[in-house]
């Protein structure tokens, strides 16, 4: 997919946000910042939900919620993740 096609399809802003927020959240997770799990959950939800809500693909929204919910449950409920973050 070329540069012009990305912006014509309305994906440019989403890709910029994803490209800038995921590295920030990775750094915060590695530094064990107090609210890194919440920030990562927000980034993950935004990545999966905003493209579906913004377009005409509401039918895919329940499927787009499955992966973020599993990742968020892992970060907040799994024992080893709790130990890593000290909660």
Can you tell me about this structure?
With 87 residues, the chain is an all-alpha fold. The protein is built from 5 helices and no strands. The chain has helices at 3-8, 12-30, 36-54, 61-77, 79-85. Helix 3 runs antiparallel to helix 4. The chain is flat, with a radius of gyration of 15 Å. The termini are far apart.
Uncertain segments: none
Succession of helices and strands: HHHHH
Distance between the termini: 43 Å
Task: Please identify the oligomeric state.
Answer: single chain
Could you estimate the helical fraction of the residues in percent?
over 70%
The number of strands is: 0
Overall spatial form: flat
Secondary-structure content class? mainly alpha
Estimated radius of gyration: 15 Å
Largest sheet: none
Overall mean pLDDT: 83
Beta content comes to: under 5%
Number of alpha- plus pi-helical segments: 5
Layout: helices, strands, pairs:
Blueprint lengths: L2 H6 L3 H19 L5 H19 L6 H17 L1 H7 L2
Helix pairs in contact: 2-3, 3-4
Summarize the structure.
With 87 residues, the chain is mainly α.
List keywords for this structure.
5 helices, 87 residues, flat, 78% helix
